[in-house]
Amino acid sequence: MSGVVIVGTQWGDEGKGKLVDLFTEEADCVVRYAGGPNAGHTLVVGSERIVVRLVPSGILRPKVRCILGQGMVVDATTLLSEIDELTKRGHECLSRLVLSDAAHLILPYHTLVDGLREARPGGIGTTKRGVGPCYEDKVARRGVRLGLLRHPGRLREVAGSALEAWAPTIVALGGKVPLLDEVLLQVQAVAGRLVPLLADTGREVHRALAQKQRVLFEGAQGTLLDIDHGTYPFVTSSSAAAGGACIGSGVGPRAIDRVVGLVKAYCTRVGEGPFPTELHEETGQRLRDIGREYGSVTGRPRRCGWLDLPALRYAARINGLDAFALTKLDVLTGFEKIGVCVAYKTENGVTDEWPSEGVENVKPVIEMFEGWSETLGHARSVEDLPAAARRYVEFIEAQVGASALVISVGERRDETIARGPLFEVRTT
Ligand code: GDP
Ligand code: IMO
Ligand code: MG
Asked: Does residue 22 sit in the same domain as residue 116?
């Protein structure tokens, strides 16, 4: 087995950074396949804490190659400052970092439009990093691919026509249209450092797989934020679900041997949009405080609620999960009772499935579980968990129809119950 996808099953922030860093011990290559600087993946190793937005989360493992796939949108300034910060901290990365020349470049007018839209009523609560407008240009076939950095003349033409197309929107939103020359000056300032990192990454990934190297495809955001399968229109603009791994890195579905979904032991969401199990009162605040649920990128408080099983079963189906990793189980310590949504009440009765018309109007059916008071950070096997925590895990496994490959009980690498290798021969 050589191609494994790690994907978020909820609304992002499930702990992908920690788990990708952990699993990269077994990998030769990590490919980020979607999103851009809207992501914030936290890596905690010993006393060091690093949040990466664009650089793949395998970067702390010295021999691993890290690829930014063509499904990504790249903000050059963010990427370069991430590289500089990692290098300053002693994590040499330039020799191992490869950028797809087909990934798209986020330009100042994208960030401007994202910010202007969000400043108005009716914004969906984006991260304001220009991600949505950049993908809009991609689909409108006027986006600037990173490969154009090698061809300044052509770049001027493409960026010029994109800027022209955005100008009326910028004006209507009350903004000032930037000058093309100013935009190009900013691009020029970074191009020299980016061009040497560009490559046909689809071919690189294909070659790595052909040589039986172990390739980990790192998701960003989560299934419920996926442009097609998420809580549309309150979603991001890319294919965050596991299928995006093929599109966003340039390999066929047969390259994927295993799909592992990340499941936070409760739910969080940043920004607007439906969230059936959201807790508005004291319990939600308690989850936020104990779980330190504040955005890694924006610092915004994350909305918190109980685990949502219909949503999770939906994510298991959309992604074709083989297994899952349960994260932040330790955060539930001290709750006398822990709620789990087992079904939804809808206008047409009770259902345990994700309704195709969305979850705006559903009410959760919550089952309460006995909590536990023991801290879990020391647990290294399931037997170390208190009986109530074990029951909680087993219940989730039975409901999802997949087993927990990993149970994470703290933010550090070692605060983990590992129950098997990531890259193993598929048995089913
Ligand atoms: P990502 O976007 O999925 O990579 O997740 P984020 O990094 O945005 O948010 C997850 C947060 O939870 C980070 O601060 C992690 O350090 C932290 N974290 C990850 N796993 C665990 C865990 O098992 N327990 C606790 N307490 N924190 C965790
Ligand atoms: P990671 O990879 C949580 C959310 C935003 C907003 C919506 C659209 O760290 O899990 P965008 O800026 O993408 O146009 O915003 O998607 N969002 C995330 N929420 N984690 C993320 O990434 C997210 N990336 C985008 O809050 O609701
Ligand atoms: Mg995050």
From this structure: no
Statement to judge: residues 184 and 332 lie in one domain: no
Backbone torsions φ then ψ of 334, nearest 5 degrees: 100, -15
CA of 273 to the centre of ligand 1 (A): 22
Of the listed ligands, the closest to the CA of 45 is: 1
Identify whether 414 is a catalytic site residue.
Answer: no
Q: What per-residue confidence (pLDDT) applies to 1?
A: 59
Task: Find out whether 318 and 378 touch, Cβ atoms under 8 Å.
Answer: no
- The pTM for the full model equals 0.97
2-12 confidence digits (pLDDT tens): 999 999 999 99
Find out whether 294 and 380 touch, Cβ atoms under 8 Å: no
Supply the range of the domain harboring residue 407.
Answer: 3-91+200-418
Q: What's the 106 CA to ligand 2 centre distance in angstroms?
A: 16
Question: Catalytic: 206?
Answer: no
Is the Cβ–Cβ distance between 228 and 127 less than 8 Å?
no
Q: What is the CATH number of the domain that holds 319?
A: 3.40.440.10
Q: Are residues 249 and 173 in the same domain?
A: no
- What are the φ/ψ torsions at residue 388 (nearest 5 degrees)? -65, -35
Q: Is residue 426 part of a domain?
A: no
User: Which residue is catalytic, options 41, 104, 110, 229?
Assistant: 41
| Domains contained in the chain, number | 2
Find the 84 Cα to ligand 2 centroid distance in Å: 24
Any domain includes 125: yes
Alpha-carbon distance of 74 to 69, in angstroms, equals: 10
